[in-house]
Amino acid sequence: MKSPTQIGRRDVLRSAGAAALAGAVGTSARSTVSQTTPSPSRPRTLALVGDYAHNCDAIRVSLDRLFKDLDLPIDYTTNYYDLSKGLLEPYQLFICFRDNYIFPNGRSQGGFANAEYWITETQGQAVKDFVTAGNGFYSFHSNAFLSRSSTNYRDVQGGVGLNHPPLRPFKVRVVNKEHPVTRGVDDFMVTDEQHFTIYDKDPKNILLHSENLDGLTFEAVLRDPKEGGPEASGPRQNLGTTAISGWAHEYGQGRVVFTAMGHTIHAMWQPEYLKLQKNAVRWLLKIG
User: Fold this and answer.
1) CATH number of the domain residue 65 falls in
2) pTM of the full structure
3) Which of 80, 100, 139, 185 would be 258's cystine partner, CB 3.0–4.6 Å?
């Protein structure tokens, strides 16, 4: 694994690599879209989206519906290297829907031999400071893996992604029905990647569990940095049929939500899950 600060990487990404990631969203690596006209009375959201496995257009389509229903503006960017205190300053909610890997030199037969980390501890600190000051942070799906690469980011996010099996049906159970994020949300079935995660903070903050009702377990080499690094090798471990799939906690003066579903638009638009996302955005922005 190469160093995330290796000389030359950022220069490459600011040109051809970044443009390639933006792909279908336009000729610029950054794409901003507002669903409604921003005004001082309406809180603003910035979403950092898109990685090698999650198309930024699909994510935008998913989130556009959510924010249109909420009648709130949202801006998008694919420029992960611009994540900073200054970038976040105009916003009240930060959404991150991308993982920890970049491939400036291309992927090696679909593997991770050429992978590099993009986030720096300074960027992780910027997110911590943003939330501590009273703002919201919504972490989606693959974003749990970003905590493998930054201690600061993991501290505010509250956990880390371990691994996941391929797409398959599973049930999402609401384990805390009293929280504002899950209020009125029923258990639901979804076909998605069942992400297995660790939550570091108080277990009372866990909102969702996922369970494979067919009894299919998942065996994997754990990639928790606390247990040998993100590319640790060793015996495969059976993670069982059930995983932590969502949490919400206060952090400083702000709030954090993570939900693990989201590999497809079908999963994002599952009616109960969409209801939960709306609750989450309202709770994070401290609006009714």
Assistant:
1) 3.40.50.360
2) 0.85
3) 139
